[in-house]
Amino acid sequence: MPDLCDPSFLTPLLERHGFHFSKSKGQNFLIAKWVPERIAAESGVDGRTGVLEIGPGVGCLTAELAKRAGKVLALEIDARLMPVLAETVGNFDNATVLNADVMGADLKALAAEHFRGLSPAVCANLPYNITSPVLTKLIGSGLFATITVMLQREVARRICAAPGTEDYGAFGIFVDFYYRASLLFDVPPDCFDPRPKVTSSVVRLTKRDKPVADVNERLFFQIVRASFNQRRKTLVNALSSGFSGRLEKSEIAGCVSECGLSETVRGEALGIPEFAALTDSIGRALL
Ligand code: SAM
Fold first, then answer.
1. 212 located within any domain
2. Ligand 1 in contact with 88 (CB < 6 A)?
3. Domain of 153?
4. Residue 5 above 90 pLDDT?
5. What percent of the chain has a predicted confidence (pLDDT) above 90?
6. Alpha-carbon distance 73 to 115, whole Å?
7. What is the CATH number of the domain that holds 53?
8. For residues 48 and 228, what is the distance between their CA atoms, to the nearest angstrom?
9. Is the pLDDT of residue 231 over 90?
10. What mean pLDDT comes out for the span 275-286?
11. Domain for residue 68, yes or no?
12. Which residue minimizes the CA distance to atom 24 of ligand 1?
């Protein structure tokens, strides 16, 4: 099998198919073989796994996954890459490539059709322009035991951030609520063509047996979002804006104090247990 990351193979292959990179589709292809090998190895997928790949590109990660997984289903939005992928990974019996936009895909139906008897997982070098919406969709589906993705280092830091740090925010809390996150390794810009401006990181998310807190999830995330919408404000002021028309500032202050928190605390200092306690308290105040 040729090295799908080797520019001396890749460039003529893409030229032969008249392919040009599209920035709007987040097309930065890997040109360093160790990267897809290591992502696939550290994703932990094996013969019992049905793995969803988003954006196979020319198929370098697809091939590494197909060597290890029970089944690979790869969704590629760019129809121009379909004949390329037929050439590069068409020989794997356990790999299917569909021309589809992950954002419009019915993941539950696809998993039922392609991953029967297998444990569903995700492994992908994500298109950077849609990282957060894709992750939100994957996590929200509740389908995947693990999600191993390469993304911008800055987003990886947000996902893995601890309370009180600059990177800590609503998105990281959303991920942490359902999955345990581990930062696996960094990938420098010179491993890609075209070369991106920023460093990338690979992150593995492992689904928790149950969400980390037993709360009204809708209200919990309303509170988290309101708390970080205006990061510089105190928690009481941020929540007063977020819940204006529903709760008075004095009622919010009462809830904050009921949870043993200072009146001047900011949202970024709170961990999930504190947000959960606040959710219960605000839930009672809203009754
Ligand atoms: N996996 C290849 C690699 O590592 O070299 C390519 C990764 S490249 C960063 C992202 C890929 O996602 C591109 O092939 C792009 O066409 C595809 N893509 C972009 N948006 C997509 C979407 N909404 N659904 C499916 N694929 C998408």
1. no
2. no
3. 7-207
4. yes
5. 98
6. 9
7. 3.40.50.150
8. 40
9. no
10. 98
11. yes
12. 101
